[in-house]
Write a structure and sequence with these properties.
alpha/beta; Rossmann fold; 879 residues; 16 strands; globular
Length: 879
């Protein structure tokens, strides 16, 4: 089979690379290689890179904004000075000079090595203004020798071009490429042992599943404990039968929040590639993924780690919406309704466990176990001691390989830890958390490995125990020495050593690590100072989350990889009664979720943060005022104004008492309360509060601060509502000028200002001036928030109403309809109407009537539209 070498920076194109690798593994039509495949312990050797490129038939080279890590000088010199490679320098002098300076990235080496060894090179360049200098110079050098990378506009176009090239080369068919496969890891091939009979039982169960019914792999025989290999079996089943399905998908469903988050990610270009993937609102992306499943029968979906009662309820609610495919659930729990057929997955037999251990540790060069005459018998004995648990055998095998041990030596060590481990397992488990304590065999295996680790490795594991069992960016640990007395020298070596012992999974290129959830449970149970380690974990997260307001859309990309870890750490922080920084992180996460319109997830976080701060600081502390304000804004956004008002008034009273009458925080409180009063038509009460807020901020920040622009906008809208348009207009224009100067031309705050000014111009019959402002506001918000955010819906409504006012009804109708559909998708996804849905329906009804439709025709058309989303004019209805 041909070998394809993928030359990519994983942090940009990792998902794309995995999709190509998954395709190759499934079809068995070619081998796919990448530098991640052959790095051991994080040591990146140019010699190995040279060998891989030489053995490849084709190099696909992707050029993005990032250049990645550079090959060290000593390795570059060794290659260039080698007699056989002397002509490399004469052929590529500029490249060689850069290599000798240690600033030639590995991905660029791959391209030049491909050209040097006469391999076919296919290059693609992402069109981005953020191309770093090394990448810019690289493209110029390629062009100089008439190698022209094909320019692509975005990641979606990159996917199309690469797979189009693979089809053109005859490596794959169109049908093979189109099959979406989204699995957490590749097959382990022959290392997957002892499950043939269960796989057949599972296949029969899945194929006989009826409508709305799923099959669950249960660890029931292990009394709900983890480590039996449920996820591995599900993934191996998916790989084995992938060609039978229209899509093969896996989502982690260990909580309702993670289930929805991971369903939303299926819409991305690397999986289902749906237009809604750019939508900021998670509910919109979830709804799009479900629509795809409902309209593409024949899929296979794994719902992984459904290990809590809340997760079970969320999954069963999801099952009621799904049809046309097969669902496989992995869970430690036995509590499922009749919708789910439970199958018990037992541990591996001793014979199968021994076969696994023998193959896993098979000597290969300088790696693997030290062979002895008793290997067969010793492997069988060890498999019995490990109770057939897949996780325990994986870690035991990793230890034996890493230490060049014998089975006999490992057995002696393992048995020496049994008594001590049993003692601490029998104690009252104060810190184990909501999940069960780890089983003895995994714990003893863990303890055996821990004794071989250095202090830094052990301390890192103790901190990682409090993160979510998801990839943790290593950048979080960059400020470790600021928060503790740790000596962080040797950090990279510690991480690679932990990976080699299978204590964590390390993605060297993406620079993330992940600890298995069962290992985390053991770590949390065993820690002598859990509060100190958790406090350090939360401190690192606090240093890592982006500065500024989480409601600012510009912070969201930096928030995304941290969000689950903040959620995990704060849940543990609340349970262990660590008020600081638990409440701060909860509050920040709650604000982020509120801004994303994830109100049901945001509200409990905001309420918990408020309760913690009230308990910690008392009822009248400024931190309490912040929590009150945030919660009140969420209540206002969900149309609970009567509940919001007393919270806002209480926040204002606290800040006035704490800071005095003229503090900027008081201005924030005044603004929030005034907007609520305006929303309840108490304009005379609202106006003095707004004017007072404006005066405070002008005095505090000067005339040209964004907070002043916010105040000007709020006051101008109130003046417009009271028909004082001539007073309102100069305030709006001043606000627009401030925000353009502060944020640039394309910020959402600028869109807000443009929208407000355009509405005023429309109210004064200057429609020709208003329209371009509205169109610009719409373009900014669509670019910032995605196509289905409520702000975009508001812009669509305003523009449609302006078109209606200028008698361009046919142009207005699709905009108004799209405006309605955004709120319908929200309502479908959340199960409750969006606060703006009824107004949207009213506006659309009026437009249809203006277009000449009768009342009966309008009602009929609205009912047809609503029925597409499982709704009726009476409200949401379950399908």
């Amino acid at each position: 089979m041909p070998t394809l070498f993928l030359s990519t920076v994983s942090s940009e194109f990792g998902m794309l690379r995995r999709r190509v690798a998954n395709l190759a593994q499934r079809t068995k039509k070619c081998y796919v290689r990448h530098q991640d495949d052959f790095f051991h312990r994080g040591v990146r050797t140019l010699q190995k890179l040279v060998e891989e490129v030489q053995e490849s038939d084709l190099v696909i080279h992707l050029i993005g904004a990032q250049s990645g890590w550079c090959i060290p000088v000593d390795q570059a010199n060794a290659f260039l000075d080698y007699e056989k490679h002397r002509d490399f320098q004469s052929r590529f002098p500029d490249v060689s000079k850069q290599a000798r300076e240690g600033i030639l990235p590995a991905t660029q080496w791959e391209a030049w090595l491909g050209l040097y060894f006469g391999k076919r090179l296919i290059s693609f360049q992402m069109e981005t203004p953020d191309l770093d200098n090394l990448q810019t110079e690289h493209v110029e050098r390629l062009n100089k020798i008439e190698e022209y990378p094909k320019a692509v506009a975005n990641l979606e176009a990159m996917v199309d071009e690469i797979f189009g090239s693979l089809i053109t080369l005859g490596l794959f068919t169109v049908e093979e490429v189109r099959l979406p496969i989204h699995l957490p890891y590749p097959s382990i091939g022959t290392l997957f042992k002892g499950r043939d009979e269960f796989m057949e039982q599972l296949r029969a169960s899945l194929r006989s599943s009826t409508h709305h019914r799923a099959t669950a792999i249960m660890g029931k025989a292990l009394h709900g404990l983890g480590g039996v290999g449920k996820t591995r079996l599900a993934v191996e089943y998916a790989w084995q039968y992938a060609d039978e399905f229209s899509a093969v998908l896996c989502v982690t469903a260990d909580s309702p929040e993670n289930l929805n988050r991971n369903l939303a990610e299926l819409t991305g270009p690397m999986v289902l590639d749906l237009a809604e993937h750019s939508a900021t609102e998670q509910e919109v992306r979830v709804a799009a993924a479900l629509r795809w499943l409902q309209s593409h029968p024949g899929w296979f979906l794994i719902l992984d780690n459904v290990d809590t009662e809340e997760a079970v309820d969320a999954v069963e609610e999801l099952l009621a919406k799904l049809h046309g495919g097969q669902v496989l659930i992995t869970s430690r729990l036995a509590r499922f309704s009749d919708m789910v057929e439970s199958l018990e997955l037992n541990v591996m037999s001793p014979a199968d466990g021994a076969t696994f251990l023998l193959e896993k540790t098979h000597p290969k060069g300088r790696r693997g176990r030290r062979p002895t005459a008793t290997d067969q018998a010793d492997a069988l004995e060890l498999a019995k001691e490990l109770d057939g648990l897949a996780l325990a055998m994986e870690q035991a095998g990793a230890y034996i390989v890493q230490m060049r041990s014998t089975f006999s030596d490992y057995l002696s060590l393992w048995r020496s830890h049994k008594a001590a481990v049993q003692e601490w397992l029998n104690r009252t488990i104060q810190y184990a958390g909501p999940t069960n304590a780890p089983v003895r065999s995994v714990a003893v295996t863990w303890q055996t490995t821990i004794d071989q680790l250095g202090e830094l490795e052990r301390r890192l594991l103790d901190v990682l125990a409090w993160f979510a069992p998801e990839p943790v960016p290593l950048s979080i640990f960059a400020r470790l020495t600021e928060l503790s007395q740790w000596d962080a020298d040797g950090f990279d070596h510690a991480i690679s050593n932990l990976a080699d012992f299978s204590m964590l999974t390390w993605d060297a290129e993406l620079e993330t690590v992940m600890v298995h959830r069962v290992v985390q449970e053991i770590l949390r149970t065993r820690q002598a100072e859990p509060n100190a380690n958790l406090t350090l974990a939360m401190g690192l997260l606090r240093k890592s989350i982006p500065e500024g307001n989480p409601a600012d859309v510009r912070t969201w990309p930096a928030w995304e990889p941290l969000r689950l870890h903040v959620d995990s750490a704060t849940k543990h922080g609340k349970r262990l009664d660590i008020p600081i920084p638990t409440s701060f992180l909860m509050g920040q996460l709650g604000t982020l979720l509120w801004a994303k319109a994830l109100h049901r997830e945001a509200e409990p976080l905001m309420r918990r943060a408020l309760a913690i701060d009230e308990q910690s600081y008392g009822q009248d502390h400024p931190s309490v005022a912040i929590r009150l304000n945030n919660l009140a804004q969420l209540l206002q956004a969900t149309n609970r104004l009567a509940e919001a008002e007393p919270l806002m008034r209480r926040a204002l009273a606290i800040d006035e008492q704490s800071y005095g009458q003229d503090h900027p925080d008081v201005a924030i409180d005044l603004n929030n309360l005034a907007q609520l009063l305006q929303a309840t038509n108490r304009l005379a009460e609202a106006e003095p509060l707004m004017r007072r807020a404006l005066a405070i901020d002008e005095q505090s920040y000067g005339q040209d601060h964004p907070n002043v622009a916010r105040d000007l906008n709020n006051l101008a809208q109130l003046l417009q509502a009271t028909n004082r348009l001539a007073e309102a207009e100069p305030l709006m224009r001043r606000a627009l000028s401030i925000d353009e100067q502060s944020y640039g031309q394309d910020h959402p705050n600028v869109a807000r200002d443009l929208n407000n000014l355009a509405q005023l111009l429309q109210a004064t019959n200057r429609l020709a001036e208003a329209e371009p402002l509205m169109r610009r506001a719409f373009a900014i918000d669509e670019q910032s928030y995605g196509q289905d955010h409520p702000n975009v819906a508001i812009r669509l409504n305003n523009l449609a109403q302006l078109l209606q006012a200028t008698n361009r009804l046919a142009d207005a109708e699709p905009l108004m309809r799209r405006h309605v559909e955004i709120f319908l998708r929200f309502t479908q996804a959340t199960g409750h109407p969006h606060p703006n849905l009824q107004n949207a329906l009213n506006n659309y009804s009026q437009l249809l009537q203006a277009m000449g439709r009768s009342e009966t025709e309008v009602l009929q058309e609205l009912n047809v539209l609503l029925s597409q989303y499982g709704l009726s004019l009476g409200g949401p209805s379950r399908q």
